[in-house]
TrEMBL record:
Residues 1-55, 187-212 are annotated as: Disordered. Homodimer. Its main location: cytoplasm. Residues 31-53, 198-212 have a biased composition (Low complexity). The gene is grpE. Residues 58-85 form a coiled coil. The keyword Cytoplasm applies. Gene3D superfamilies: 3.90.20.20, Head domain of nucleotide exchange factor GrpE. Participates actively in the response to hyperosmotic and heat shock by preventing the aggregation of stress-denatured proteins, in association with DnaK and GrpE. It is the nucleotide exchange factor for DnaK and may function as a thermosensor. Unfolded proteins bind initially to DnaJ; upon interaction with the DnaJ-bound protein, DnaK hydrolyzes its bound ATP, resulting in the formation of a stable complex. GrpE releases ADP from DnaK; ATP binding to DnaK triggers the release of the substrate protein, thus completing the reaction cycle. The keyword Chaperone applies. This is Protein GrpE. Residues 8-27 have a biased composition (Basic and acidic residues).
Length: 212
């Protein structure tokens, strides 16, 4: 038996379908699952405000990353610098062992003995060491520099005004600015004042006829 009030109760009943996916179309419904009158998170000033803790952590991580990049860059530069240094040391070591051979070639050339096949081999060797950066230095008339010259002979001369290389006994060798062997030279310094005065006096006495 049906209650007389059952019809009115069913008429006042409202059924809302809050399912997120529409069962007929399979699409996501707009606003599904939100209660009526509930403000969205974007509308809340507190939700939109930035989190100071997150910003602080982000700044700290950014600083760490920059520091790591700087350390890696310095590491790469140091490795490259060490690689170049090791290469230069290896090349210098090999070329130093060849210096006596180059000296022999130079002496043979000075005496006119560098001929035939020996001349071609010598030229090839000198070309090869030149490509590796080896060069000679030292010429007659150069000012004496103790950092690049080794004085084996010493004298005084009135023809120079400062210590000068008057003879190259053995050429010097270098790679760039690195000295492999100093040039071995004979050095002449300006004549001492006393010696110059005595020489002038002796010359004047020899020229004066009254003293004879």
């Amino acid at each position: 038996m049906t209650s007389p009030n059952s019809g009115s109760e069913h008429e006042g009943l409202v059924i809302r379908d809050n399912r997120r996916i529409d069962p007929e179309t399979g699409e996501v419904r707009q606003g599904a699952g939100k209660a009526a009158g509930t403000p969205s998170p974007a509308a809340s000033p507190e939700a939109a405000a930035p989190d100071d803790g997150v910003a602080s952590q982000l700044a700290e991580r950014t600083a760490d990353l920059q520091r790591l990049q700087a350390e890696y860059s310095n590491y790469r530069k140091r490795v490259e610098r060490d690689r170049v240094t090791v290469r230069e040391q290896a090349v210098a070591s090999v070329l130093t062992e060849l210096l006596p051979v180059l000296d022999d070639i130079g002496r043979a050339r000075d005496h006119g003995e560098l001929t035939g096949g020996f001349a071609k081999v010598s030229e090839a060797l000198e070309s090869s060491v030149g490509k590796l950066g080896l060069s000679t230095y030292g010429a007659k008339g150069d000012l004496f520099d103790p950092t690049v010259h080794e004085a084996l002979m010493h004298s005084y001369s009135a023809e120079v005004t400062e210590p000068t290389c008057v003879e190259i006994l053995q050429p010097g060798y270098q790679i760039g600015d690195r000295i492999l062997r100093p040039a071995r030279v004979a050095v002449a310094e300006p004549q001492e004042p006393e010696a110059a005065s005595e020489a002038d006096g002796a010359g004047a006495a020899a020229a004066d006829p009254e003293d004879n």
